[in-house]
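*** Backbone structure tokens ***
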Amino acid sequence: MKKLTRFLGSFIFALALSSAAWTQSRPNQVVDQMIQALGGSAFLDVKEIRTSGRFFSFSRGGLSGGDFYLDYIKFPDMERTEFGRERNKSITINKGSEGWKIEGKKGTEPQSAAQSEEFLANFKTSFDYVLRFVIKHPQTTIQNLPTEIIDFKRTDVVELRDAAKNRIRFYVDRDTKLPVKMQIRRANESALQEELYGNWHKFQGVMTPMFVGRFTDGVKTMEIRAETAAYNSGLSDSLFAAPASK
């Protein structure tokens, strides 16, 4: 009888583990609805992104600067960001584990290994990368959390754990099915990174947040106000190539 009891206990425990694993790996309704609201296949098929507008930086929660920006992204791991006007333009280029910074008359400097690693860590936990690549990775788990109120909106909350054990949460507006907030806590860091999204517009069938607010441990660090957005416009690889040395 004791053996039977132990067997049944082990069997039920195994079923519970199997059920939990299946719950986390099966398609998630909140995520599916969010992807559809963002544009469905048009959103998922994006390979290139070009945006421009203004950004504002904050120090200790107060405005400390701002300028124009032009940003190019080419998946899976390339980004070029230009800051300022022509005469005083600053350019940052990243291509996988390589990176460079161009500072007007100062010339070009290669990024350190630590800077390139930080770029990749940020890029692979970014909104655009996570929703196109991380979600469908077989090692990513997804689970639903209790709902929360964000800016007077009831949101459904889903938590992802990627292969690197980074914790990523999306707070999805129950009415529009669009994300209100994304929260990231990397596995090797204690800091909590957050992005707030607003002023959504559609470009080429893809919903795009024209407002993004970034926070670290609840303190505002940046605000982005996009003015234009274009997808799959045929970006040349030369945009992300190592700058010619002078």
About this structure: The chain has five helices and 13 strands.
